[in-house]
Every structure is written in structure tokens, then in C-alpha cells.
Amino acid sequence: MEAFNYRDGQLFAEGVALSAIAERFGTPTYVYSRAHIQACYRAYADALAGMPHLVCFAVKANSNLGVLNLLARLGAGFDIVSRGELERVLAAGGKAERIVFSGVGKTRDDMRRALEVGVHCFNVESIEELERLQQVAAELGARAPVSLRVNPDVDAGTHPYISTGLKENKFGIAIAEAEAAYGRAAELPNLEVIGVDCHIGSQLTSMAPFLDALDRLLGLIDRLAERGIGIRHLDLGGGLGVRYRDEQPPQPGDYIRAVRERLAGRELGLVFEPGRSIVANAGVLLTKVEYLKHTEHKDFAIVDAAMNDLIRPALYDAWMDVVAVQPRTGEPRCYDLVGPICETGDFLGKDRELVLAEGDLLAVRSAGAYGFVMSSNYNTRGRAAEVLVDGAATFEVRRRETLEELYAGESLLPE
Ligand code: LLP
């Protein structure tokens, strides 16, 4: 589905004109579509109907309380990687028993709290973590449900910074060592082995690496069964790509059907941890043109959103579509769309053909995932507002940060 469409010469989020949102909430502002998030979540949940499953939204992709609350109401589970994400999910009405806890650096405190609230599963990333979890669970007199995150050594064919399933990555336990690690986990009295987990990377645009990883994990599950270690669920992580420009990623339904075919005859539940494919195209970053600056070599549109608001172009050289909210007629010029931050890397897009005037509104598309969550206060800029649109209604799900808040926790030196 497409939640952001032009009508009467201007871009709408569902039933609300983005120009009206800019007027009411100012810019820069992230705008999300409830219907889009719902449709993407359901594409996963519907394809998994009739078998034990959890669709655990990867909170790191968009951790706004309103977004999490919407997903919790739809019955989603959550994939978390920190104590902070755990508290957010609980505050948003998420159920502890639908949480999987990933991440290579879980602290004792993280573990304790997750055991207290009763998460569904710890995705354990090393033998050292296994031993620590055993200790913490024993102290609490609890039994910790675990999966080991196995690194299947497949090339996800994606950006090196977001590729995680190769053996040189810091993530998971090498598949060659996984059997021994499971043997150890099964010996530890305060752990209960329930699953096998992997996550091979993000923004994958083909199914082959997922299925390759799946085959390797099924082989492992068979070898574990021979050792008497039963596995109840297989967690395939997140990673399904989205269309930013002209990518043709598989649809969640097609991907899940292919996975289910390979599971035929097995009694295995499935867990997925999608982030981007649920929220990326459900969001735009709304920004205003402050200046048009024409130099001998380049035309710049200086906008009021910057790399502190949306770092993907600067960090990954990611291409994100930028469109005019109320397109003008006229001769387009080729603009670099840059922010006010004092860095050459502060750009949202380069060489974009647009007809612009000062004060125009632009929308950076596909900004619902890894947008606001990666924003910072660099250059002492307050973080953007976040707004969720539902039909003709608009909810401010995070107000714009005030300048006072930016240094509220700081202090002057004593006299
Ligand atoms: N599960 C685990 C263990 C992960 O590490 C990730 C993402 C996900 C699930 C969700 O993956 P997704 O479905 O969103 O691809 N900041 C980067 C993306 C980093 C992804 C990190 N891990 C970006 O802006 O492209």
C-alpha cells in the first residue's frame, strides 16, 4: 500500500495534507501512517496464520511509544536490544511474553530485569553471555529461556555496515561452534533451550541468502535433535529490504511462504524480527527550504532538517527519495539538498532535479525506519516532532524537543 499520495497538487499522509501538518507542528517533523504500519504488520502475521509464530517488531527501527503502542494493539511481539527498549515496550503496552532480547552486550541488570518481567526468549550471542545468564538466573531462582544466535556465514549482499551474518562479524556464534555451545547451554540448570536464532543483515533485496541461512539452521536443528536437544522455534531475524528507489525486494508473504515450504513436516514455531519492512515506507521526514544558494558549481537547497535528524545519507551514503510537498511548474534545477550543520557530509540528497522556492516544503520518503531513532542533538539542535496520521486524524506522538531540554542535565562548574 502507499499511504503518501498526491491529491489536488499536494502530498497527503492518508487523509491529511502534509502542508497542514507543517503548519500545525512546524518542521522538521516525522510523519507516520497508521494504515501503512498496520498493513505491513499484517502481511507478516497473515502469512504465518495457522502455525505457532511471533512477529517481533525490531524496536531499534522506530521506538516511538505511539508506534509501539499501535503494534502492541495489533498483537505484535518485540525484538529489543537494551533495557531502554524493554521499558519502552512495556510502557507502550507490549507483552513481556512476546519479547525476544537480542544484542551482544547484555548487562547483568538487563538480564535481571528481563527475567523479572518474563521475556519470551534471550537471543544469546556468545558462550560468555550464556554463563552470565546462568548466574543471573540462578541468583533469581529463575529459568531463562534461550536461543543461541547462530552466525550461518552467508553473504547477505547488502551494505557492509549492516551485514551481520558473515564469520568476520561480531554477531552470534559461528555455526561450526554452535553444537558445542548448545551442549553447554543444555547442561546449565537455570537455562532452558527453546530456539535457534539468526539475523544475517538488513535491507536484503533477495530471498536467496535467507533461504541459504534457513537450510543451514535446519541442518543444525537436526544435529541437535540427534543429541537430544529439542528446538521449539526458529527465529530468522529481520532484514527484509524495502523499496527506496528501484529495489524489488521480496514481499513478506512470498518470503514466509518459501520458508514454510521448507519447514513442512517439522513441528517448529517461527519468529521474525522485522524492523525496516514494517515502518520504513510508513514515514516521511517533512522539512522546509530555508535558502536557495546558487554558486558557480552547484545549486544548494539548504533545508531545516539535517544529518542530526536523518543520518542515513551521511552514514551509509543511502539514497532517499525527496519530493516537493506542493510541486511547482517551471524549469527544474539540479540541487544538493543540505542541512544547516557544519559538516560537508550533512546532506539529505544530491543532484536532485526540483523546482523550488524559499519556504517550500519537502518530504524525505522512506524515513520511518532508522530515521528519528538515529537522530542526535549535534550542533545543539533539538530533535524533531513525530506525528502519526490515522485517516483524517493527526496525533503528535512526540513533541518537538525544546532548547532548554538540551542542556537540562548539564551544570556549571563550582565557584
Ligand atoms: N534483529 C536484529 C538482531 C537486528 O540486528 C536487526 C537490525 C533487526 C532484527 C531488524 O532488521 P531490519 O528488519 O530492520 O532490517 N541503521 C541501519 C540498519 C541497521 C540494522 C541493524 N539491525 C540503516 O539505517 O539502514
Keywords:
29% helix, Lyase, Ornithine Decarboxylase, Chain A, domain 1, alpha/beta, TIM Barrel, eight-stranded parallel beta barrel, 2 domains, binds ligand LLP, 21 strands, 415 residues
What fraction of residues sit in β-strands?
Answer: 25-35%
Number of strands: 21
- The CATH superfamily of the largest domain appears as Alanine racemase
User: Span from first to last CA?
Assistant: 61 Å
Uncertain residue segments: none
Helix content: 25-40%
Number of helical stretches of at least 4 residues = 12
Q: Mean of residue pLDDT? A: 96
Under the CATH scheme, which class of the largest domain?
Answer: Alpha Beta
The global form is globular
Largest sheet: 9 strands, mixed
Structural class by SSE content: alpha/beta
- Level-2 CATH architecture of the largest domain: Alpha-Beta Barrel
Give the CATH topology of the largest domain. Answer: TIM Barrel
- The multimeric state of the shown protein is single chain
Number of structural units classed as domains = 2
Radius of gyration based on Cα positions: 23 Å
Bound molecules: ligand LLP
